[in-house]
Protein 1
Amino acid sequence: MSTKVRVASIAVALGLLTAGGASGQDVGSIVAWGRNIEGECNVPAPNTGFRAVAGGFQHSLGLRFDGSIAAWGLNRHGPCDVPAPNEGFVAIAAGGGAETCVGEDWGGHSLGLKFDGSVVAWGWNDYGQCNVPSPNRDIVAVAAGGWQSMAIKADGSIVAWGLNHNVPAPNTGFVAVAGSGQSWSCYEYGFTLGLHADGSIVAWGWNRFGQCDVPAPNSGFVAVAAGSGHSLGLKADGSLVAWGYNGHGQCNVPAPNSGFVAVSAGWGHSLGLKADGSVVAWGDNSEGQCNVPAPNRGFVGVAAGWWHSLGLKAFPGDLNCDGVVNFDDINPFVSTIGAEPLAWNLAHPGCHWLNADCNADGVVNFDDIDAFVALLSGD
Ligand SMILES: [Ca+2]
Ligand SMILES: [Ca+2]
């Protein structure tokens, strides 16, 4: 019997199933580690039901399946004060930076993308990073640097605001963007990485450490991340490329450099998520930001703050990532059996293959079918 027929038969045989079978379990929780002097690792209760996570300067954001945003950590400039109404969000980004040439000037800001394609920005705004330009619509993705904010429009162009906002021409064909940076000295501010649909990266801005010099061959990239002075690119074959400032070893990707499905960059450290649900961390570990808490498995997302790290745990059985386990998850579940993890994740952005690992053994195969059916039936 084919996998598809087998799963469908099992589901039908169960008759009337209870939707939301995974409710009550500790699913979609956030794990935080590293520097915590501002509470940036204190995930607010209830720590469940999260679909995305973001790390800023010393604050953190979690996006819940109900469309609300939780924010915690340093709130000096208000990046944790989510503007009302706190609802309808579909993506988040957190930024932060420090200005060393004018004395004490540091903070973070936050971005939320709403389902209607508009962006809400709040927090540190000394450089206009929260002044979303009009028309504020048709936006499909957001990213935050220290002093700049970026968004991708439905037409593939990048809109950027704050410092360092001049997107190189031709401004078209972008599918992802990342930005960060710190004030290494006066007038050295952030940089931005734009990922083209053709798999190449365009980099612009501050380039003291070569963080904008993408190593050849500049092709085959599927994701990008920007640290304070280093850059990371994920290739379609699951390997990572790192370049720029390497004073903390943040560009030394640990072996084996394979099996990665997501990447994030902090001030001096790097995080990589593997297809098996483990997190690899390297670079600056002065705050323990590279000490992934045990058990290091079941992760479906990673995000790096400046000195802290965040990991999102799986939501077993929720294969369309709508926050409940029900009949709608059957077809995407079936599509995961035998699928190549990276290819599946690329085809389902924001929804991880590992959610199909319903028996929590790190792989997705026939052995997960019974556990999936149990989740469907609310067992
Ligand atoms: Ca679902
Ligand atoms: Ca499994």
Protein 2
Amino acid sequence: MRSSNILAIVGSILAITTTSTVLAQGEAENIAVPRKPEWTAQVNLAAVPNLPVRPIGSGVCENPVCDGTDNDRCFESCGNKPNSDDIYGCPKPKQWALTFDDGPSNYTAELLDMLDQANVKATFCVMGAHVRKYPEIVKRAYDAGHHIASHTYSHPHLMSLSNDEIIAEMKATEEAIVDAIGVKPSYMRPPFGEADDRVKGLMKAMGYKILLWNADPTDYNIYKEANVAAKIKATFVHALGGDDTGLNAHEDPGFISLQHDLYTQSIDQVPAIISLLRGSQYQLMTAAECLGDASPYQKDHGNSDSGAAALPSDTNINAASLPQATSSEPSASAQASSPQASVGIAEVTPNAPVASVHLPTSAAISLSFTPFTIGASCLLSFLLSLSSTML
Ligand SMILES: [Zn+2]
């Protein structure tokens, strides 16, 4: 983190800082989410459904009854109802958008080298905390013509957060991205693919489109397994072969695949994946490009140029017969059995227990109350520790 960022945080007297803990592979990554009181006032909440905050439940349930008690128990099954605005795949045949989540990381430069070599542009759904850590990597990606989208600041289960907390996740990420590349994204990918109508309403109020996916090699879950290369590539092979990916809520003929630039084992497959897709006459492009969106950045913040080539717009989405099941980005249930690894950086295992708060001090104080109740003394203690450890 740059000293200017520290000073900006410390200098904002009224800023409230919350933290959430993202479990890392090998060690916990404590992420402090900056918060400013004015952020919520900037968002028009009039059209945001007044739905209750949902506790982090047990994930996906079979045949849930989503009008009663199953709502909370079957967290993902009942919360993630696809709607016509959600983006799952590319709208035209023979289009494929590679997307990479949770970065940037210290592997992303290697991935950018691979993409440069193949002359492929991709979409990066970046975490604000990681943008603060590697702003130069985001700049390189943006300058090269890749598409930058938001993936929140600390990778929480958004449905479990209050409106204020969700807004802070997005606004803090916006600031980090604007500081790095000068523009504000207009696409966001909710962590775990989790977004109910309240979350979606908030995203729309903040100018975001919900970017999901319809091909998922579950690299987060198999990156350490034997034959990981074959297993990751199998997802692409099956999709090319016309198999149902189970994620194609809108029956899109083109694909948006999900990988994570946190796993070198997944990145290593990218050249072979590109060859495979091109061998099947697929055109590789960013998600924004396949959606015909030449300016995937919000216009209220400086330069709105995207670096993305303009393509004919064809974003009609067949909203008929939308299935209930949605994502398979690392779910709580999947992550529970995911092996831990010790990889260079603090990597994200996207199963953040946002109910607990860990201050990023060496003592790693754990507080059991909600982030909103952090007192002034704790805040001061945190800021001092942050300044001393980060500068
Ligand atoms: Zn993620």
